[in-house]
Design brief:
With about 425 residues, this protein is of the alpha/beta class. The chain is about 35% helix and about 15% strand.
């Protein structure tokens, strides 16, 4: 492992104390993992802290943790409309005694803020983790057509304009050029999956330094072994996540209903959502839910610290997303819990779950094929066989080694300092 940077400032679009998305969890777990390993880490994260405050709001949340209010940003959350708020955040970042800034998003951080920080700290090294494809796709980075749920396989200005008819192909060509101009200024880029690295390569972006590195799950989630195999565990399926149009809950419920008609002993628990929320998104599911009756249980919200114990009450975790996904944290959690997975056969899901080793695949968005997979999973002995092969997707030391190499460019230590004096930097200039 290379000698560690003395101090790293991690900048995130959100803090997991306020929202529980994968990107903010990855940033926070990097922060805690670095600190536990004896490195100096500073976290600066966005958080909505009440009514908008002109000029912004900065708050010291905990030792080496700072919150900023993102309300002063434009509607797309890529630029600041409140210049005083941006300048206050910029001053906070410039003053940090670090030589590495690691960004986990640009959304709710701002192109203009990042560019200004790069100008103010020419002595520092800048690294970005690309958790999603917002740069490539204006549809929330989902790469799904806006007039349905057809997958989009690549960037084309005419196709983008077809999804957003109020905009021209030229708009999307300029959008791509703007993103590339910023991305090309970073010293290094980290991709949590080979899938997303390939997507950015195909889009036309090749970073100066590229690292494919899985997010760390952290040490606060500890799995306890099951005392013994529970009867019928292989027939119990579970979903963990928020109800959104892209998580595939409708595919899961329809697929489960088909499988239940063939195998009445099946059971499905849905964690993170309520029946009413699902029906607001997919009102046509009411008949399927009524027919399933108690075989489908809505478990409601859960605390992230309880997730492994909840997963171990089921035999399988199902990830039925209809968009590509990149590196779903639910897959890492299930593997640590020792629970095999059933996932859509696209994107980071297909990459992270090896068929027959970590779990099973089914055709994305295809309820009958999901029913087939559920019935195959419920076969005697199938769950036990796959559960026995579950391991963490990445270990702590492997993560730290890869992270520190990416943050330093593999060139050794970066001394602590916040003076902005370029001569203090022992790495090649960007």
């Amino acid at each position: 492992m290379p000698e560690a940077p003395t101090a790293i400032c991690i900048v995130a679009h959100a803090h997991p104390a306020f929202t529980k998305g994968g990107g903010e969890m990855a940033a926070f777990r990097e922060f805690t993992t670095l600190r536990a390993a004896g490195h100096r880490a500073i976290l600066v994260a966005a958080a909505e802290m009440g009514p908008a405050a002109p000029g912004g709001r900065l708050l010291r949340h905990a030792p080496d943790e700072h919150l900023y209010d993102p309300y002063g940003m434009t509607e797309d959350r890529l630029f600041w409309s409140d210049l005083a708020a941006r300048e206050a955040l910029l001053a906070l970042l410039v003053a940090q005694p670090v030589q590495v800034f690691h960004f986990h998003h640009v959304w709710r951080v701002g192109f203009d803020l990042v560019a200004a920080l790069m100008e103010a700290r020419p002595d520092a090294r800048f690294v970005l983790t690309l958790h999603e494809m917002l740069a490539i796709c204006a549809h929330h980075g989902q790469m799904i057509r806006t007039r349905g749920r057809e997958l989009c396989h690549g960037y084309a200005p005419a196709l983008c304009a077809n999804c957003f008819p109020e905009r021209t192909p030229r708009h999307f060509a300029l959008r791509r050029a703007t993103w590339l101009a910023l991305l090309n200024r970073f010293d290094g880029v980290i991709y949590p999956s080979e899938f997303i690295r390939t997507r950015f390569r195909d889009w036309g972006f090749a970073a100066r330094e590229e690292t494919v590195l899985e997010n760390v799950l952290g040490e606060e989630l500890a799995a306890t072994p099951r005392a013994s195999a529970e009867p019928g565990l292989g027939q119990h399926f579970a979903f963990f996540g928020q109800p959104t149009p892209f998580k595939g809950l409708d595919v899961l419920i329809r697929g489960f209903a088909l499988a239940l008609a063939r195998e009445p002993g099946l059971f499905l628990s849905l964690h993170g959502c309520e029946r009413e929320e699902v029906l607001r998104l997919f009102p046509a599911l009411e008949a399927a839910l009524d027919a399933a009756g108690p075989a489908i249980f809505f478990a409601g919200r859960y605390d992230s610290g309880d997730v492994l114990g909840l997963m171990r009450l089921s035999g399988w975790v199902v990830v039925p997303s209809v968009w590509w996904e990149n590196s779903p944290v639910v897959i890492q959690e299930a593997r640590r819990a020792g629970v095999p997975l059933i996932v859509s056969d696209i994107g980071g899901m297909a990459e992270k779950v090896r068929p027959g080793l970590d779990g099973l695949h089914f055709r994305r968005g295809n309820a009958p094929d999901l029913a087939r997979a559920l019935l195959a999973a419920a076969a005697p002995g199938r769950q036990e066989a796959l559960a026995a092969s579950q391991t963490d997707s990445i270990g702590r030391e492997e993560f730290l080694d890869g992270l520190l190499r990416a943050l330093t460019g593999g060139q050794g230590a970066i001394r602590e300092g916040g003076s902005g004096v370029a001569a203090d930097r022992p790495l090649a200039e960007s």
